[in-house]
Amino acid sequence: MTRVQNQTETQSHSNAEPDPVAQLLDAALLHVVFDGWSEATFEAAVAETGIDAVLARAICPRGAVDLALAYHRRGDAAMLARLASADLTGMRFRDKIAAAVRFRLEAAEDKEAVRRGATLFAMPQYTSDGLKAVWGSCDAIWTALGDTSEDLNWYSKRTTLSGVYSSTVLYWLGDDSPGHQATWEFLDRRIDNVMQFEKFKADLRKNPLLKPLLAGPEWLSGQIKRPATRDDLPGSRNRG
To answer: Taken in order 84, 184, 71, 68, is the CA torsion positive or negative?
Structure first.
């Protein structure tokens, strides 16, 4: 690349408009520890960034709730970047999953912000947002690790990992062990439990006595396909 091209790229980056959501989020994180993901936090972020209040409300209609979701997406992006640069060669697949979940937790800039987010998304009116955020993280992990499933397995993998991820987050929030070592051991145990269950299902399929009984469920699972896009949930029955 020539010096002129480098200068042009540098100028284009410097001239790029700052992301107002990122600006609001950075300002809000200074207040979340005191006020949680609340209206007070959102108003403080708007005041400190100098972003027009009407614009701020237009890009974050639910105020701090939308910023909490933006914070979660920022963690997902950091996790994916770390996964892309990590050398996972030779690792067992269950260890790759464990590494991805660990990367996701370590991407959190502030444990208290996560704790406050967990409290927010435990509220009935925001539970669906929290579940969708966790599902999105687990979908990102499976996709990054090369999952090619197209049927019911697409859903079962993400559902199972969502349970592992959620329980590990809760454990991590209360973990004060050096380097969160207790959390990583907890995560390994949860994944081992899942792998044992998967082995049990595989053994059932190999059992000649049970195979006729599984024919119906296996056929039904084959009629369910993954969603066409992330927004197309929960997918549809395969009519082909």
So the answer is: positive
Q: What percent of the chain has pLDDT over 90?
A: 66
Q: What is the DSSP string of the chain?
A: --HHHHHHHHHHHHHSPP-HHHHHHHHHHHHHHHH-SSHHHHHHHHHHHT--HHHHHHH-TTTHHHHHHHHHHHHHHHHHHHHHHS--TT--HHHHHHHHHHHHHHT-S-HHHHHHHHHHHTSGGGHHHHHHHHHHHHHHHHHHTT----SHHHHHHHHHHHHHHHHHHHHHHT--SGGGHHHHHHHHHHHHHHHHHHHHHHHHHH-TTTHHHHHHHHHHHHTEE--SSTTS-S-EE---
Residue 236: strand pairing partners: 225
From residue 219, alpha-carbon distances to 40, 203, 210, 212 in Å are 53, 18, 15, 11
pLDDT number for residue 124: 97
Per the model's pLDDT, the better-predicted residue between 229 and 22 turns out to be 22
Mapped onto helix, strand or coil, the DSSP state of residue 237 is: strand
